Amino acid sequence: MISEKDGTGLRVGIIQSVILAAIAMAVIDGIVVSIALPTITRDFVADVAQSQWIITAYLVTETSLLLLFGSVSHYTGKRTLFLAGLVLFTTASLACGLSTTLSELIVFRVLQACGSAMIFSISGAMLFEISSPGSQGRTMGYIGAVTAAAGIAAPILGGLITDSLGWEYIFLINVPIGILGLVLFARHFPSEERREHCICMDWPGSAAMAISLLFLVLFLVELSSALIWSFEAGLYLFISILSLLLFLYAESRSAHPLLDLSVFRNLGFTLPNLAMVCIYMAFFMLNLIGPFYFEGVMDLKPSQVGLVFFIAPLIMVIASPLSGWVYDHYSLRSLPAAGILLTGISLLLLNYAVLRQDLALIVLLFVPLSIGGSLFHSSSSTDIMRALPLEMAGLASSVSATLRNLGMTLGVSVAGILLTMELYGKGYTGPVQDAAPGILAGAISTILLIGAALCGLGGAFYLVKNLLVDRK
Fold first, then answer.
1. Dihedral sign, Cα of residue 157, residue 319, residue 268, residue 343
2. Residue-level pLDDT at 26
3. Is the dihedral of CA 413, 414, 415, 416 positive or negative?
4. Residues whose CB is less than 8 angstroms from the CB of residue 391 and which lie 6 or more positions away in sequence, other chains included
5. Residue 166 has what pLDDT?
6. CATH code matching the domain that covers 262-472, chosen among 1.20.1250.20, 3.30.450.20, 1.10.1040.10, 3.20.20.80
7. CATH code that applies to domain 1-200
8. Distance between CA atoms of residues 461 and 125, nearest Å
9. Is 413 in contact with 248 (CB distance < 8 Å)?
10. What is the distance between the alpha carbons of residues 115 and 283, in angstroms, rounded to a whole number?
11. How many CB atoms lie under 10 A from the CB of residue 10?
12. Residue 183 and residue 77: Cα distance in Å, rounded?
């Protein structure tokens, strides 16, 4: 493994750029399809229930495979797995763009998600390992900046590409980027030691975890569409919980567990991960409800909404690496807690601004919101990677990526359920975008309060870590 200490700064920079570009592509493709979904649904003459699987299949597949590929990397090596993931992601993107039926598109999206899981599962570990100890926080900050920028820019890019070129090109644009990344990574990332040929894995446990995540998503989809407890919702939740228990049982008995459950006894590892789930849920709740508010209440055009949401990635691109540098040099253990609490306070004030329908104040509050997210992500990611021995970096990275994806998925799903429930509770049953501005603002303000509470919970997790772990 190369590092910045080897005097190969340009080489490390190229590798970092390729990994970050791959992360950006994977994040964007997990979100961007939602913008093109109406067009895809119309082109394939399908209903929304069928076409939604373009998104659901991707998220479920990616999230359920992250831990698996994190473990596989111990046998294949990170270089081999990353290259395989980039090849599969690029090829599947081409196939998605050339799909002639909805069924084909869904199948190729599953393959694309497999490639994304290969990339995501080890990207954090690779970036951490090639960074010198004095720059690890800054490097983890790059991941936060890229993830935030890609997540927020995805809807804007999706709309522009779909309108100007067609939905196919939201996939085809990955092909030249992927090919360039493959060439650069293969050329500059050194070969690794030969690994074992036999991959000894807990395959039953892997299957149980995938089933648990699949039925959790199905439960949330059913709940959001029916808004009442149904037999199907109860069945999906039961299967999800049962599969999770079977996964935990299999892992505790396996000689080659997919996930070494003992790592969660390490509070320095577990508490930052729990805090990360909280803040990602809060941010993706905001990502879902924000456009509805700006268009339905403030009467902004989609392009104007895009400009408002570009505030966050612009700030985070600068603030995340900078906060990581501060964390590297000054070891401010309170920085992650301060970051997530600043995010929560910003969401709390946004609740007030939303009710007042004060656009200037809302735009202003996006600044501390973004700074808080930057302070948290770079420092907490560093804490998570440092909490386990270096030889377990792949596990730390894959667990963190799994929980991050779970936070994103839960944030979007919970926000959708809450928004519809709030509107129903106020007597409105029509399309969300047609709700009266006052009703819509009230519903969204409630969701912002819940997002602020989630950040408060995440801050509490970190404060407990500071008290119990860092003072030892």
1. negative
2. 79
3. positive
4. none
5. 86
6. 1.20.1250.20
7. 1.20.1250.20
8. 23
9. no
10. 25
11. 9
12. 18
- What is the distance between the alpha carbons of residues 460 and 275, in angstroms, rounded to a whole number? 8
For the beta carbon of residue 198, count every other beta carbon within 10 angstroms.
7
- Cα 268 from chain centroid (whole Å): 21
pLDDT of residue 6: 47
Place of tokens 């030969």: 194
Q: What is the pLDDT of residue 343?
A: 94
Structure token pair of residue 337:
């807690």
Segments of the chain with pLDDT less than 50: 3-7
CA distances from 465 to 55, 324, 376, 454, 469 (A): 36, 19, 14, 17, 5
Question: For helices 136-164 and 102-129, what crossing angle results, to 10°?
Answer: 160
Q: What is the pTM of this model?
A: 0.78
Task: Locate 145 and state its tokens.
Answer: 């900046």
Q: pLDDT value at position 123? A: 82
Task: Classify the phi-psi angles of 199: left when phi > 0, otherwise alpha if psi is within -120 to 50, otherwise beta.
Answer: beta
Element spanning 289, H or E: helix 267-296
Environment class of residue 105 by beta-carbon count within 10 Å: exposed (0-12), middle (13-18) or buried (19+)?
Answer: buried
CA distance 155 to 307: 12
Q: Angle at CA 333, nearest 5°, toward 329 and 339?
A: 100
- Residue 192 and residue 77 in contact, taking contact as beta carbons nearer than 8 Å: yes
